[in-house]
Fold these 2 entries.
Entry 1:
Amino acid sequence: EDKVVQSPLSLVVHEGDTVTLNCSYEVTNFRSLLWYKQEKKAPTFLFMLTSSGIEKKSGRLSSILDKKELFSILNITATQTGDSAVYLCAVEEFNTGKLIFGQGTTLQVKP
Amino acid sequence: NAGVTQTPKFQVLKTGQSMTLQCAQDMNHNSMYWYRQDPGMGLRLIYYSASEGTTDKGEVPNGYNVSRLNKREFSLRLESAAPSQTSVYFCASSDRRHHTDTQYFGPGTRLTVL
């Protein structure tokens, strides 16, 4: 059975800290891995990763994929209170476009 | 552009009542999806429509039906609501003709079944 597992499930840090969120997957027909941020509303897109070892970066956020070991990490440096959210990892199936989501990591950044 | 819109935003039903959740997108996307989100479980796919005229079951289809009315609209129907269907429902769409395209989500419908 296809599955996506995120860790940790929750995390509390202070402003300025660096955090690493993990996502491992077992999906038969892998097309891409996506990261979303969710703040009490609809998920908003962060990154799409398709190739191993190529870092995607947007400001203080970055992500990388390892297709051999079947995992991805999302890094957030110099965290701010506005980074508090649920971070969702999802794997897209190749033929159907279906997304298989992990449970999410709830990040709380304290002032 | 409005993107993906959903109605209603909130709904309270009694057990056994029926209702339809509406979703529309104005991005000319081929594929549309319905997910539910429960605490601690991420999003789970209920049904999807790869293109106009086709629908397929996702991970948790029991108790739901869908209609892809046209390219823009994809509705989700609960024929006889149950408390286990209390959840937040998200509609999404994507254009899978482009490899780099992702799914865009609507604002969600918070449904409570008493």
Entry 2:
Amino acid sequence: SQQGEEDPQALSIQEGENATMNCSYKTSINNLQWYRQNSGRGLVHLILIRSNEREKHSGRLRVTLDTSKKSSSLLITASRAADTASYFCATDKGAAGNKLTFGGGTRVLVKP
Amino acid sequence: ETGVTQSPTHLIKTRGQQVTLRCSSQSGHNTVSWYQQALGQGPQFIFQYYREEENGRGNFPPRFSGLQFPNYSSELNVNALELDDSALYLCASSFEGADTQYFGPGTRLTVL
């Protein structure tokens, strides 16, 4: 079973616009991570936010975490056509080993 | 590039057959995790190996089995293939205690 739900399931924007996607999860976590996947290939790690952090930035990416609402958001600013991909959140409960539980993903299309 | 490789890239099998998928971890990584990703869904955790021992398992039947070798490469074996086993199989390597996993490009398995 999947830990979280992602919203929206699909997003279509123009190049230069911002893209925001949300992730909700069900149980307490150690950290939450966002991954990108191009055309059904391997996952690329984007950013990790720990349970005691509220916001994190990496380049054009901004991630927030609200543990009281069990939710996270990923903002991609000034989107580019190369940002077209599926984006997944994944939670790690912090048990022995880092076993990730993924959401269903948001498919983002950035139109040039 | 994450330094994690998987073989083969694509594979077609018939129902009831057995399959072995292979993964070569990033240099220095002693932990490997396997995930199954059905079309249009997020990856689901199958199991994890740490120093050649299984270190956690998801909700998959015993016909899914694995091995990790002294050089930390890994295999995923699936017996008695079913149509629903058709999916992208991803392996991810990490170093013990690290939060970030590095994913390979995946093996797409089709069961006819």
